[in-house]
Write a structure and sequence with these properties.
Length: about 450
RNA sequence: CGGGGCGUAGCGCAGUCUGGUAGCGCAACGGUCUGGGGGACCGUAGGUCGUAGGUUCAAAUCCUAUCGCCCCGACCA
């Protein structure tokens, strides 16, 4: 993409309404613009990141054996009356009336809807278990939306739902998602800590929140130092190996981790210098809640003995749009964003230091074509203008690599490759740069 | 929902107290000089001062109402 043609309205100054760093940087980098309180438009750069994150989440859901589908944003109130939540949910639920005066709502979550679908279409124990997910926009009419997309009213969420015959099956499903979440956040370049959570109004018996560590996080978390060095990526983790799954979950959950009022002073003292106190942002939440909805909504299957059984369920959320902000909170410096390569909107920013120099521009054009052809995502700053502006914009946008080409270097046959994260610079030949980026 | 604050050019702000030609910086546009970390100079364009009503010879400024946005708290992916 040529920057001269790209719609990316960057700002030099901080908009006053943005109080936290991710919000400021997202506005300044031209990723989002506010439509109204807690509701945002995603401009091209921001939307690219959103889709990248979504894709990582999707791949890990699929890997864990979960099947993607898509449910609507607008739901019928009757469905929620069945579960009893239409009255329970309160003013956070955006209620809508259609032209026939029917009560509708913009879904804040989809338990009722998926339960209805499963109830109507699955009748036999032979079809169990089922793990289903979708990635869809939600709306919760927060009293006080804030911090940009971190706490918006409209947000993109991955929500998955598990259906099992019995509690042992439900536990196995829970474990899958638990491991899946650890992997997902690692791929996103984040340190995630699972914290045992209140099950809250959604009900149930087993629940963990996943918090990513960032200095600007909303809640303070006390946890065992081993979380910081833990690496669960282990590609050989087999989701179908129940013992492995349970062992992994047991291992991780045996380590102390708690937030806010759940923190325990004595335990923390006993940890000594193994205690890490950091701030965290909740980006995922998993629940196992038994038959809460299936009982209320009559979702049963016939067992081998012909008796009908209420299904055991869980639901598993990841705040996809919140993650965009969360990643920035966890990864930035005073100059701007530092994208992990897995979600960067482009892999490399190609900077033409002197667009009115024929040789320099043809070298840049050439390399831009070669890289693009090789499948490398390049944002090419081909604008006329001063070097400082280009460096500043590129640092702000935060692409992992900057490839800087100017007449001075070209004379001696070198270009400069800068790593945004480490600020390391190498002076190398064009071919070496190409090989390194395309390799 | 309780408490506080702010709406003036795309962004950041001054002007409001004490009514009298709507301003500054950045960004934008045209030009000259420049050219490796947000450069300089010259010029241009851009505003029903959130909205509605009122007071007044005269309202960004005073009064009333209303809408929007932000912050702190309680609540949450």
């Amino acid at each position: 993409m040529r920057l001269s043609q790209y719609f990316i309205p960057t700002l030099k100054e901080n908009p006053t309404e943005a109080q936290i760093v991710s919000h400021r940087l997202m506005l300044r980098a031209g990723m989002i613009r506010q439509a109204s309180a807690g509701i945002y438009s995603w401009l091209p750069l921001g939307y690219r990141v959103l889709k990248k994150i979504e894709q990582v989440v999707r791949e890990e859901q699929d890997r864990a054996g979960c099947q993607e589908m898509l449910m609507p944003t607008i739901q019928s109130a009757d469905l929620w009356r069945e579960s009893g939540r239409y009255d329970d949910y309160g003013p956070e639920m955006l209620r809508i009336r259609d032209r026939h005066d029917r009560d509708m709502l913009f879904g804040p979550t989809n338990e009722e809807q998926i339960t209805q679908i499963v109830r109507d279409n699955i009748k036999s124990y032979k079809d169990m278990p089922k793990l289903l997910y979708h990635i869809q926009w939600k709306f919760r009419d927060e009293v006080r939306p804030r911090f940009g997309v971190m706490r918006g009213r409209e947000f993109l969420m991955k929500d998955a739902y598990s259906f099992d015959l019995d509690s042992a099956g439900a536990r196995r499903s829970y474990n899958r998602f638990f491991v899946c979440y650890m992997r997902t956040f690692e791929r996103l370049g984040l340190k995630a800590v699972p914290v045992r959570a209140d099950t809250g109004p959604i009900g149930g018996n087993l629940s963990h929140e996943f918090l990513i560590l960032a200095d600007t996080g909303e809640s303070e978390i006390g946890c065992h130092a081993d979380f910081i060095d833990m690496d669960l990526r282990g590609a050989d983790l087999d989701y179908d190996n129940e013992d492995d799954m349970q062992r992994t979950v047991d291992h991780v959950t045996s380590l102390y981790a708690a937030v806010d009022e759940q923190r325990d002073e004595e335990t923390e003292k006993s940890l000594g210098d193994k205690l890490k106190v950091q701030r965290g942002i909740e980006v995922g939440h998993i629940f196992s809640f038994g038959t809460k909805y299936t009982a209320a909504m009559g979702a049963v299957v016939n067992g081998p003995d012909g008796e009908s059984t209420e299904l055991e369920c869980g639901s598993y959320g990841i705040g996809v749009s919140r993650l965009v902000a969360g990643i920035i909170e966890a990864s930035h410096d005073e100059n701007g964003i530092i994208w992990p390569e897995s979600v960067a909107p482009f892999k490399v920013g190609l900077i033409n230091l002197k667009a009115n120099d024929e040789d320099c521009t043809s070298a840049c054009d050439d390399l831009y074509k070669r890289l693009t052809k090789a499948g490398v995502e390049v944002l090419y700053d081909d604008r006329e203008g001063r070097a400082g502006v280009k460096f500043a914009d590129m640092d702000l946008i935060g692409l992992p690599w900057q490839l800087i080409i100017g007449p001075r270097g070209l004379k001696s046959g070198v270009v400069e490759l800068k790593n945004r994260q480490s600020s390391e610079r190498q002076e190398i030949s064009i071919d070496e740069a190409f090989a390194q980026l395309a390799g």
